[in-house]
Every structure is written in C-alpha cells, then in structure tokens.
C-alpha cells in the first residue's frame, strides 16, 4: 500500500535525529517501494535520496501527527471489526 510506504518513510525521517547522515535508497520492488541503506539491486548506480534536515520542533510536531494518525487508524479498524461482528450476529 502506497500510504504505508509513505508513513514508514515519514516516521524514519521524523523520528531519527536530524544530524544522522545515513544514505537512503528508494527501490521499486515490483508492487511496492522499499527504502534501504544499500543501493538497489536492479539500479545500483541510482543516487541516494536527498533528505532535508528539519527542526526539532517540526520533528516533535510530526511525531504527534503520526501518533494521531495511528490512533485514528486503530479506531477505524476496531469500528470495522465491531461492524462485522454485529452483521454476523444478525445472520
């Protein structure tokens, strides 16, 4: 799922200190994008992604947004499960 790949990249960029200098490569692994520290097997000469440093305040804000998003997703899943259980009981 595309949104999950973005979420993982967002978490990786926002949760780690801005002073870390790791290279990140975005590799297309068929159906989904994969982010890794080594060059991609199918495109070994592709340069790493450019990741901008962000302020500590923005990192904290992003963490709060991420936690809120994950909480909403968890509530949505629980609501779907409850709805499925209600429908199963009606049958």
Protein model, in words:
The chain has 91 residues and is mostly helical. The chain is 54% helix and 11% strand. The chain has 2 helices and 2 strands, in the order αββα. A two-stranded antiparallel ribbon has the order 1-2. A hairpin with a 2-residue loop joins strand 1 and strand 2. The model has no long low-confidence stretch (mean pLDDT 80).
Secondary structural class: mainly alpha
Distance between the termini: 32 Å
What is the general shape?
flat
Q: Within the largest sheet, what's the order of strands?
A: 1-2
Taken as a percent bin, the fraction of beta residues is 5-15%
Number of helices: 2
Number of strands: 2
Regions with little confidence, pLDDT below 50 for 5+ residues? none
* Largest sheet descriptor: 2 strands, antiparallel
Estimate the helix proportion, in percent: 40-55%
Rg, Cα atoms, Å:
18 Å
Number of domains: 1
- Mean pLDDT, all residues: 80
The H/E string reads: HEEH
What is the topology?
Blueprint lengths: L1 H14 L9 E5 L2 E5 L19 H35 L1
Antiparallel strand pairs: 1-2
Helix pairs in contact: 1-2
